[in-house]
Amino acid sequence: xxxxxxxxxxxxxxxxxxxxxxxxxxxxxxxxxxxxxxxxxxxxxxxxxxxxxxxxxxxxxxxxxxxxxxxxxxxxxxxxxxxxxxxxxxxxxxxxxxxxxxxxxxxxxxxxxxxxxxxxxxxxxxxxxxxxxxxxxxxxxxxxxxxxxxxxxxxxxxxxxxxxxxxxxxxxxxxxxxxxxxxxxxxxxxxxxxxxxxxxxxxxxxxxxxxxxxxxxxxxxxxxxxxxxxxxxxxxxxxxxxxxxxxxxxxxxxxxxxxxxxxxxxxxxxxxxxxxxxxxxxxxxxxxxxxxxxxxxxxxxxxxxxxxxxxxxxxxxxxxxxxxxxxxxxxxxxxxxxxxxxxxxxxxxxxxxxxxxxxxxxxxxxxxxxxxxxxxxxxxxxxxxxxxxxxxxxxxxxxxxx
Length: 402
Known about the structure:
This protein is an alpha+beta fold and 402 residues long. 29% of the residues lie in helices and 22% in strands. It has two domains: 286 residues, Aminopeptidase (3-Layer(aba) Sandwich); 110 residues, Alpha-Beta Plaits, CATH 3.30.70.
């Protein structure tokens, strides 16, 4: 099966995860893709194929040569809660000539290179786009398609020598719980790579340190005609809380190594309100400074409105994997050499986010990140560059056969 056909089949299966559900997986529909992948892995001759009750798919390709490391590849099956992944209608744009791409005539939705300049990099390539009503799901079904295409290539070319290849497809990466139930012993790899990025020459081993904050605000609802000196409007206090945080440390003002705090949602009424934030920085000390800003804001408002008005909960999400990966550079050098053999120049810019590899590395399984060809993820302007997908598939083959 061609990589594009695989990819299109995968994105048509709704696997959106749910950040507010603590079940594992957070949505049962992720099993629909997992079961398909189990079947396809078995058809490709992958051994020890196993689907856990928490929706993690595992499998191995046996080594056919000695003195090769055990190398793993990981991609996630879920799509972001940020936009619907139901009834995805992928469209193939062949030999993109530049200019606007019409996604939806009825809704007058276009992919516009003047708004999304990354499109200018893809002139001359084939693209898979949305119909403007859903995300595409290239994050990370493009990664899954690349891994499956690699496995197909190896099954068709059994003379290629390689060590054991370990495969895992995880749920709930988009809600920060992709490897909470990961079985490291079953996976059995010396090191691994997440296939969950953008350009085919991407080799990323730096990511954010990440925390989440929940701000619960207790107000007091009084009839507005008799509210003076009595009412505490939780929604107004919520806005005041946000105003106490540095305005220029929001995602829309940051890039590169600059961290941020991001108000993901706010809901409530006069009596009570809740705000959910994510907090990110590549530097752990700077992340702790940002958390201290939240604590100071809560303290200030509790002094103003009374103790217990603000309840602040901070939780850890993932850590920057850089230092641990640099302790054993073999995992990077193998990928760099594979890219060099294919005439590719590695790009190792810091990831302004995190992947399953962040937590896998923290737990001792070194796991930098490779690209997939996906662009503009988590929204209706998401698309995948087919050439980059094919290049990543060949890169994975080169990595295991070095």
